[in-house]
Design goal:
Chain A: This is Trm112 family protein. The structure holds 2 protein chains of 2 kinds. By secondary structure, chain A is mostly beta strands. Chain A contains no helices and 4 strands. Chain A is globular, with a radius of gyration of 11 Å. Chain B contains 11 helices and 7 strands. In chain B, strand 4, helix 6 and strand 5 form a beta-alpha-beta unit. The radius of gyration of chain B is 17 Å and the shape is globular. The chains are: A mainly beta, B alpha/beta.
């Protein structure tokens, strides 16, 4: 994902803002990292450039 | 293997396009793309969200025509195929793939110009919830297809790896009204079911398709069609 996606992404649980933590990037593409719900504290991983915003009850990992 | 596991398996994702959209399946791919383009109109500069984008067949097509597209799906394996496809088409910059739940979208209200879902509602256990959520994040337009009850679809439905819900016109009208959407346009197609097209070679499929189109265009065409495309406006 690109950092500009942060402009529209929100927490699927309550639509509140997310905070971005980056572990690995390739130019402006964020490959690994996580999104953290500023209200819920929920952690959503970014894996192979794809943010995983499945709510916790739907995640298998 | 259960439907969701099947859909998210790596080997299924790798072979998904070649199994479904080669041979007679190409005609289905072509018709579906035409349905999307005709519903969405010129997409240059538009923000489009595709629910259940899978391997990105439509996501990539829309990006190639200048749209900024977000593809959302439950399967990382399917979207890994989509990312490759987007890169080889040179439109990686116009597409974002996101893993998420269609009933709880990670987007604000009224954000996208159009929200679409192809081949999604037949898998949906809670269609009213999904449609309401599509409506919530769309400013103007919601577009989707359904497989119809009272059609040839019924005959082979039980063969499919994932369960398949069929809809009548009344079902769709109820869903639209419940979600605050108004039907703007519709079309109906495929008297013969997809499964048949996928199994036969191109030449025969072409002839069969001509026959199919002839029946479709007669007065009972809509009633016999197995697929309907619904183009709705946000009220």
């Amino acid at each position: 994902m690109k950092e500009s996606l942060m402009d529209i992404l929100c927490d699927p649980l309550d639509k509140s803002d997310l905070e971005l933590e980056v572990d690995e990037r390739d130019d402006d593409e964020i490959l690994e990292g996580r999104l953290i719900g500023t209200e819920t504290g929920e952690v959503y991983p970014i894996e192979d450039g794809i943010p995983n915003l499945l709510p916790p009850d739907m995640r298998d990992d | 293997m259960k439907g969701q596991e099947w859909y998210q398996a790596d080997d299924v994702a790798r072979e998904y396009d070649s199994k479904r959209f080669s041979k007679g399946g190409r005609l289905i791919d072509h018709r579906e793309k035409q349905a999307v383009l005709s519903a969405l109109g010129p997409v240059e500069g538009k923000n489009v969200l595709e629910i259940a984008c899978g391997t990105g067949r439509f996501t990539v097509m829309l990006a190639e025509r200048g749209a900024d597209v977000v593809g959302l799906d439950i399967s990382a394996a399917m979207m890994a195929q989509g990312r490759q496809k987007a890169r080889s088409a040179g439109v990686g910059d116009r597409i974002e793939f996101i893993r998420g739940d269609a009933a709880r979208l990670p987007f604000p209200d009224d954000h996208f110009d159009a929200v679409m879902a192809m081949r999604f509602f037949h898998l949906a256990d809670t269609p009213a919830k999904f449609l309401a959520e599509m409506r919530r994040v769309s400013k103007k337009q919601v577009f989707f297809d359904t497989f119809n009850s009272f059609s040839t679809r019924v005959v082979y439905n039980w063969l499919l790896p994932m369960g398949s819900h069929l809809y009548s016109r009344a079902d769709v009208e109820r869903l639209l009204a419940g979600a605050g959407l108004q039907l703007a346009d519709e079309s109906h197609d495929f008297i013969l079911p997809y499964g048949l097209y996928r199994k036969i070679p191109n030449g025969i499929a072409g002839e069969l398709r001509e026959l199919d189109e002839t029946i479709r265009d007669n007065e009972y065409g809509e009633k016999l069609s197995s697929v309907s495309y619904w183009n709705a406006e946000v009220l």
